[in-house]
Amino acid sequence: MAGLLAVSGQAPFKARAYARGAEILERLDTDLGELVEARRLTTLPGIGAALAAMITELYQTGRSQALEEQRQRVPAVALELSRIPRLGLDKIAVLHEALGIETLDDLEAACVAGRVRTIKGMGEKTERRLLEEIRRLRAPEAQRVLLPEALAVADALRAYLAKTSGAATAEVAGELRRWAESVDQITLVVASDRPVDTMRDALRAPVLAEAVSRDKAAFEGRLATGLPVRVHVAPRSSYATTLLRATGSKAHVQHLERLAAERGVRLAGESEEAIYRRLGLPFILPELREGEGEIEAAISGDLPADLVTAADLRGFVHCHTVFSDGQHTVEQMARAADALGMEYMTITDHSPSAAYAGGLTVDRLKAQWEEIARVQEKVSVRLLRGTESDILVDGSLDYPDAILEQLDVVIASIHRRNRMNADQMTERLVRAMALPCFKIWGHALGRIILSRPPVECRVEEVLDAAAAGRAAIEINGDPRRLDLAPRWLRAARERGLSFVVSTDAHSIAELGNVRYGVAMARRGWVRRGDVLNTRSAPEFARSVAPTGFV
Predict the structure, then answer these.
(1) I need a labelling partner for 188 at 20 to 30 A (CA). Which of 149, 246, 309, 413 fits?
(2) Distance between CA atoms of 202 and 195, rounded to whole angstroms?
(3) 280: left (phi over 0), alpha (psi -120 to 50) or beta
(4) Which residues contact 100 (CB under 8 A, 6 or more apart)?
(5) What are the CA-CA distances from residue 165 to residues 33, 195, 384 (Å)?
(6) What letter would DSSP give residue 513?
(7) Which domains are present in the chain?
(8) What is the DSSP track for 78-144?
(9) Does pLDDT of 473 surpass 90?
């Protein structure tokens, strides 16, 4: 219903209400039938009388009159083609009437044949864009989801599975347990004393739209969103082995199997720790199990044992306010940091070149300094005044040196001209890293996960310049960015560079982004001592002070 209403373009608030209702039901960990029979659906947050009536009708009869009426108003072709951005009902109707287009396949064929451009108001440019969007929708990346969405659904499913008949415990596995930036499947493992009963109940999970295949030990299904799910049900005796195999990458698991064969032992044990111990290895954390040298490092004793944790962080870095494109004031952000027990917070709004994001002119920046001073008298958290300064095309920073020298912290980021070729971008970044002020290289390669690729540059050359200059590397916690990627964090560590785990928060809620930044840091083997914002407020301020211009 939410999808049909969204396509129609009418009453968008109704579409959002239905979408919220769907999310609430997907995450429900109580019995829906009991709520329906007791007429208590409206006790759920976000479920009003009209939505409760529709849910009750669907539950009791398997159909909804309102839904069927909406389906008559919005043809199936509209729902199918509305997946393409900026393709409204009017254009869909024209394509349907003029070319008989019913599906994405039909539209793709029409674009390839050059027939779309013959329609008045479309043209060759529109045809080319439609073809690009169709191919983007079909790319493997289009089937993946970001960490927050995957974690929310997985947590709800794990909670449900843990309460099924005979279940002892349930754990998320696969890419999600390794904290991959995005996932194309949610995998869980359940330990059970009665696997048959557990499997029966698991197949009734509210978040599950359909079961595609099953056997005695596992089943595969799909969520309503289309995201695949795989659930393993294992007796307690084999739970640890199943979890180990379902968590590690293929390369990691195969390496363990070879090691077990060489040492004449079984890949089994009462816990994951016991299995690694049987192989003569220390416990390898799930987020390190990528088959990228972690087993060799464990054997040689070089695998870091003190990876950074969220509890190690003492300050929020990279925070935006209403002075640029943030949603909350300096005071609101500061009070939130206080409530979360942080020692310091950097206020780093955008610089003038980021006009689209409300970048601060020098006068507005100075007004912000006054606001920071006023708020500082009301809060315990130490407020550091800073900027997220654009790295301009020539590699310079987007404020005069005389202004940068008065700041406590400078985050240097690229926001424009992302499509320079590798030579140009490398030169631009190397120049920025060589600037005499200390700077934090913000969301370094500018990627937007599942949407925009990293900038083209010779990353190792830029890291060399950062190591030779006065720079630290940001590990950006925005789940759409998570930049730098773990493999480059390891390369930065090898060069002795320091890091900052940041929030890139544009609201109070986004201060929670640190959990994702920490996950990327751990995947990049970053240790507690490598991270500048594990230090006290005075130590951090000294470490990042941009002074030192020549």
Answers:
(1) 309
(2) 10
(3) left
(4) 106
(5) 18, 9, 53
(6) G
(7) 2-139 (no CATH), 145-300 (3.30.460.10), 310-544 (3.20.20.140)
(8) HHHHTTSTT--HHHHHHHHHHH---SHHHHHHHHHTT-GGGSTTTHHHHHHHHHHHHHHHHSGGGG-
(9) yes
Tell me the two tokens of residue 218. 């596992």
Helices (H) and strands (E) in the chain, counts: 24, 14
Closest C-alpha to 428, from 442, 409, 414: 414
Rg (CA), the chain: 26
Retrieve residue 230's tokens. Answer: 């795989």
Q: What is the pLDDT of residues 180-213, one digit of tens each?
A: 999 999 999 999 999 999 999 999 888 888 888 8
Return phi, psi of residue 97, to 5°.
-75, -40
pLDDT band at 550 (very low <50, low <70, confident <90, very high): very low
C-beta neighbour count of 485 within 10 angstroms? 20
SS (H, E, C) 250-287: HHHHHHHHHHHHHHCCCCCCCCHHHHHHHCCCCCCCHH
Residue bearing the bigger pLDDT, 513 or 68? 513
Q: Are strands 208-214 and 218-223 parallel, antiparallel or unpaired?
A: antiparallel
CA distances from 360 to 253, 368, 440, 505 (A): 51, 9, 19, 17
